[in-house]
Every structure is written in C-alpha cells, then in structure tokens.
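Morning - pyridoxal-5'-phosphate inputs below, output right after.
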Amino acid sequence: MSPKYVLDPFSEKYAHRTSSMLSSEIRDLLEITARPDIISLAGGLPYTQAFDPQVILRLVSRVLAEDCAASLQYGPSDGFAPLKRSLTEIMREEGTPCLPEDLIVTSGAQQGLEFISKIFINPGDHIITEAPSYVGALNSFLSYQPQIHAIPMDEEGMVLAELRNTLQRLEERGERAKFIYTIPNFQNPAGITMSRDRRYALLETAEEFDCLVVEDNPYGLLRFEGDPVPTLRSLDESKVIYLGTLSKIFSAGMRIGWVAAPHPVLEKLLLAKQSADLCTSSFTQRIAHLYFAEEDWKGQVSQLVEIYRERRNVLLASLDEFLAELCSWTHPQGGLFVWVTLPAYIHASEMLASAIDAKVAYVPGSGFFPYRGGENCMRLNFSYPEPEVLWEGVKRLSKVIKREVALAKSLGLQGKPAGGRPHGQE
Ligand SMILES: Cc1ncc(COP(=O)(O)O)c(C=O)c1O
C-alpha cells in the first residue's frame, strides 16, 4: 500500500486495537525479496510448481461443466459437505478421527486463528504460545490485546517446566490462561517437533490448569524422516481445537483450511464465520473436493516430501559447509523451515540490509516473538528455492555473517548480546 503517510490524518478515528495490529515483517520483506536478483530464504512458499497444471485444468473444467451454478453461488457457512468428508479423510491419514460435523471450513487456517482470537480473547486475557511462534498467529492474537506468555522450546517442543511456572504464577493471582497455542509438527519458524511424551504431558498440564489447547498442524503430512507422532487432537478431543489447511499439501491459493473443535466452540466459530465472510469460496471448495476425492493426492504429497527432503538436506549441508564454526541450527524432520542461531552479539534485523546488499534474504528471528527475543536468530526456508540456489544463498549469507563477526571483533562487541527492542517498535 503506497504511498505511506507519515502523519495519518485519520489516527483519532481508529479503534484502540489497531495500535497492536502489526504489519508482518515477512510480508514487508517479501516485497523486497521478490526482486529476481535476490535469493530469498525468507518466504514460506510451498513449491506449487510440483503440480501438473493439466490436472488442475481438468478439475476446474469438471466443476464448471457439472456444477457451474452452485460453484458460482453462496454456500453453507460450515463448508461444502462433500469437501468436509474429504477433510476428515486427510485427518485420518494422520491418525486423527474426525466426523464432518466436528469441523467447519475456513478461508485458510489463518482465518481459523482470527476466529479463535475473536471468540476467546478479551483485552488483558492471558494466552500461551511457543517462543518463537508463527507470526500470523501472533498478529491475530495481538490485535485482540491479550497478554501473551511465550514459552521457550527445546528439541522436544515447549518446555513444560516453564509452562507450569507460568500457569502456576497466574493461578496464584487468581488468573488463568485461556488457551495454549502450539504448532507441534515441524514448527514454523523453529522446525521443531514436539515429542510424544511432551504431547501427553502438555495435555495433562492443560487439564490441570483448565486451559484449552489450540493445535495448528499445517505441516504434519510433510514428514521426511522419523516416525509420526500422534496429533494432540487424537489424544484428547475434549479440549483440543485443531486447525488444518490445504495450503501446504495442495494449494495456498485456494484458501481452504478448517477447524475441528468441541461442538460448543464450533457453534461460536460458525457465528464468527458468518459475520466475517458468510462462506468460503464455493468454487475452490468444489475443486479441492474433486482433487482429494479423485486424484492421487497421497502420491503428490509423497512427491512434495521427496522434493523438500532433498532441499532440507542441501540447506543443512550448506550450513555445515559455510557456518559450522559460527552458528547452530535446528534439524527439522519435515516442514519448510530451519531456525538458525547466530553469535549472541549479532542483531539479525540490523544485518538484513547488508544481506540484501549481498543479494540474499532471510527473516530475522525477532518477528516471531510477541514482545522481545530472537534478536540473534533467523528463519530460513528451504521449500521454494531450487537446491543449487539454496547452496548459493547460504554461501552469500555466510559472507555477510563473517563480515559482521569481524566487525564486532574489531569494535570489541563480542561480549554484548544483540539485545532487543519490543516487537513492532523499530
Ligand atoms: C503455523 C501456520 N499456521 C497457519 C498458517 C496459515 O495457513 P493458511 O494458508 O491455511 O491460512 C501458516 C502459513 O504459513 C502457518 O505456518
């Protein structure tokens, strides 16, 4: 949206909540990194080139030939019934039983997050997230003005001792967290998967402190190694609200996600859906339904997994080759992202200008924290760039980081942590 106003003539008119609505650092970045000369490790784009356009063309033609009037029409707010059945099949693929009446279709999982925020969060309410966490979720939550408690993660997911301490402290003040938000599989941005034991323990803790659990699972089927771990929803339907999406296994452009939840919650979500956009596109729901009912979608997911596994391997190998001495990083068993930790004194946001100068881009870690944190971290994406481009991207990045390290040494800054500014106050 340009030109940008320096002084907004309408500033007196906006609702208070707009002051906590943040522009996503990632979206802003994508504008810059769309330049063809820049290698972008910043986005989170699925590799849609893997899909055969002829297949999609066939589906679109069939929808129009067989069901044109209905596909151009409004549809039920809870979703197109045949698609809802297909979505339960997708959940079954991950061992999660679900009936069509247990879910509503949304315009992407992002809309589900927005609705969850809308129906649960009063200003000042407490909610729990992982630290770091998905920026789109944080931005939805923050616009409803909660206090977010961001719980650090280790290689098994959210650190439960920290979670318990936080919930205990709240309880001592007579307060409770409304929900715990987690991305248990191949987390965005950290690439971490919550272990089986941690999942059971998280649910026990949620039970003890009377919290709902919001399980956001866009990447679960994109596993390259290791054994599948049960979804939280499959372990406890009574308090887990589950978000699914077709964005990572079929198309982000169709804008189809869903929320499975206990029925009282589902009723409130449906009211939110009706007031937001009446229904998700009848047209894309029909295309998606045909795709999952009649095409070899599991074969396509396997192909995506092969592509992403190779790219993840290349990214990890290039980090080993160029940055082993200086940085550490996660080893994702699936999904799209690797989380890199730089020396403590390097500020990834401040380094970004030099990186773009060197024609490579990443997302600075601080954007994934609600208030502060992650200043010396970055998220790298491996799903979109071709393998040789990933290698070259990390090579360029390593030169930028090495220059930054040399500069810090010459200025004697190595003992000083990058520190942080509160999120959104650059
Ligand atoms: C963890 C997480 N949740 C939700 C979304 C939003 O997905 P959708 O395209 O279904 O709105 C994303 C997208 O990247 C994501 O990473």
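Note: Residues 44, 108-110, 134, 136, 183, 188, 216, 218, 245, 247, 252, 257 surround pyridoxal-5'-phosphate (CB under 6 Å).

O.
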